[in-house]
Amino acid sequence: MKAILVGFMGSGKTTVGTLLAQKLGIPYHDLDDMIVSSAGKSIKQIFAEDGEPTFRQLEHDALKKALKDDGILGTGGGTPIQTANFELLQATEIPVVLLDVMPETIIRRLASDTERPLAKQLGLNGLVDLKGRRDLKYEQVSDFRVATDDLTPLQVAEVINQNL
Ligand code: S3P
C-alpha cells in the first residue's frame, strides 16, 4: 500500500481514498468491502447475526491481507482501536494518515445513517463519546493528520498527496 487512511466513521475515508487513488492512478481498497466480500454479507448482517467480535476477527484478517496489496487502503473507524491492528499499523513502513473531523461534522454526516450498526446502537451522543475515547489511538497510530472539516474531499486528497 502507498497510504493507509484512518479516522472515525464519517471522516471521509472512502470518498477521499477513492479520489486519492484516482489521482495517483492506483487502486483503492476498502477494508469494509473486503470484509463484506469474504463474509458474503453486509456489515450490518455480520453485526446482527454473528456479533461484533466476529466482525473484528474478520477485520483483522482482512487488514493483514490488505497490507500486502498495492494502492490506497481505507480502514474502518474501529480498525486502529483493536490492539492487534494498532500494533500492525504502528509497525508498518506505509504512511498512516488520520482524517480528523470535529464532532459537529460527525453528527451532521451520520444523523441519517442506516448502514452503520454502531451509529444505530449508540445514537449521536454515544458516537461523539466513542470518538472521544478513540481519538488518542488515532493520533498515536498515524504519521500525519489532515483537519478535514473545512476542506472538500478533493482538497483533502491533494493535501495527503503533497505529504506522501
Ligand atoms: C466501525 C466503522 C465502520 C465499520 C463498522 C464498525 C467502527 O467503518 O467498519 O461499522 O467501529 O467505527 P466506517 O468508518 O467506514 O464507517
From TrEMBL:
Keyword Amino-acid biosynthesis applies: yes
GO BP: any one term: amino acid biosynthetic process
Annotated cofactor note: Binds 1 Mg(2+) ion per subunit.
GO cellular-component term (any): cytosol
One example GO MF annotation: ATP binding
Positions with a binding annotation for ATP: G10, S11, G12, K13, T14, T15, R116
Catalytic class of the enzyme: transferase
Entry's EC annotation: 2.7.1.71
Catalysed reaction equations from the record: shikimate + ATP = 3-phosphoshikimate + ADP + H(+)
Main location: cytoplasm
Binding site for Mg(2+): T14
Function: Catalyzes the specific phosphorylation of the 3-hydroxyl group of shikimic acid using ATP as a cosubstrate.
Subunit structure: Monomer.
HAMAP family (alphabetical): Shikimate_kinase
Family from the record: Belongs to the shikimate kinase family.
Protein name, UniProt field: Shikimate kinase
Protein's organism: Lentilactobacillus parakefiri
